[in-house]
Amino acid sequence: MGGNALSVPSKRVSREEYFEIEDVILTHFMQHGIFTLYAPAQFTDKESFGDIDLVISSAYDKAYVEQTIRKISDELVKNGPTWSFNYNGFQVDFVFSKNPDYTANWMCYGDSANVAGRILHKLGMKHGHEELYLPVWYDDTFVGDVSLSDNLIDVYKFIDLDTTWWETQRVPANPTEVFEWVSKSKYFNPDIYLFDNRNAKARYRDSKRPMYTALLEWCEKHAATLNRFEFSKDKSVYLPLIFEAFPHAKVQYDRLIEHGKHNKAVRVATQEKANSKFIMELTALTGKELGAFIRNVWENIPVETLLSESKEDIHLKIKHLWDNYVPRV
Fold it and tell me: Which CB contacts under 8 angstroms, 24+ apart, belong to 59-62?
């Protein structure tokens, strides 16, 4: 994306040319049976474009999609879920998605999803390009994600944002309208966008986004009148709010927490009863040989046994395994 993925930077085209190219690309792929291909909406005031982003269903056969691309392009660059190809000197980006409708809406209106996503992040969630999800941690260890919603309108309503743009044909004219839109959320706080409050990766990424830096300037200009919701450092305080809005998530969350508790119990039991130091002293093995014997231990001592039996009993079992151990060739 950004018009620089190909061997030669993309030319910039006028608004009229942009929509002509969009129509040609969509028509070409529909003629080849690829209909789930969406074009995210653009600001009405945007006069020129350096590339075009199109969202395509990841259910399509990739080999067939590539074959169809090569009928109209002499260069294709694959970068994960994004494929970039040249069309008459203009860069076209295909973004593969398992939920293309959500992704296309997520990509509408410049960095609108990123701007709204900062609020969702502060509430403990992750605004992914295919869905909203809740990262779950137990004892400072990540244990999994809970899927919250794959409906962007529901997501934005949850954080008190107006969804008219996604429900009607009215489109914002420019980034300023997006800034005004997000600032009306009761959860808005301009400080969450400051680079000083972002990690190094986020600062590097967003510093290259003109719309993000324009947001910072806009917030500074209107600082005196902006809402400043006070976020808690403890994101768990927002769980009741999340579970009320997405009731199905509570069961998934509880299951992951129990999984985290179980994993911690196994880690603790391993350190107390079957740690590598004890096994090294018992066997005098090192390197690959040590790793092979440790794998043998876990193949022969079930987790339930590790958790339920005493340290002395586990040590006896490991010693018995070592006395009868035959290294694999």
Answer: 59/98, 60/34, 60/36
8 Cβ contact partners less than 8 Å away, ≥ 6 residues apart: 86, 89
Provide the b/e sequence for 179-202 (b: ≥16 CB within 10 Å).
bebbbebebbbbebbeeeebeeee
* pLDDT, tens digit, 9 for 90 and up, residues 122-147: 999 999 999 999 999 999 999 999 99
Contact 192, 226 (CB under 8 A): no
Tell me the two tokens of residue 14. Answer: 């006028």
Classify each residue of 260-287 as buried b or exposed e, where b means 16 or more C-beta atoms within 10 Å of its C-beta: beeeeeeeebbeebbeeebbeeebebee
- 186-201 pLDDT, tens digit each: 999 999 999 999 999 9
pTM: 0.88
Instruction: Choose among 257, 198, 185: nearest CA to 226.
Output: 185
